[in-house]
Prior knowledge:
Elements: E1 2-3, E2 10-11, H1 22-25, H2 41-81, H3 95-115
Amino acid sequence: RLVRTGEPLQFDSPEPRMCSSPEDRYPEEQQHVKGFSIKLARTVQRQSKSKMSTKRRMKASEREKMRMRSLAEALHQLRDYLPPDYSKRGQPLTKIQTLKYTIEYINKLSDILNRA
């Protein structure tokens, strides 16, 4: 436990502590009070991780955008193959409607071919 006195911060008891401290867990990080430098290796490491995570997130977001664009384009092409009977009142079909109607249409075409 730290005690604030007129002097620099001191421990109020000389016995060793029973719990781990940041110094124990991160020996590369030296923490000192008044007149001593603080090693910023951990802070810099955390910042670079943060930046790396941001870059990774941006790349992942871009990949997801491209995936969604590709999916939208594929669904648009699929809608073009469906007969106009499947679209209702000129409204665009939803993704699920497009997939369901495509399956239905393929089954109808298969039935026609099987009967011939």
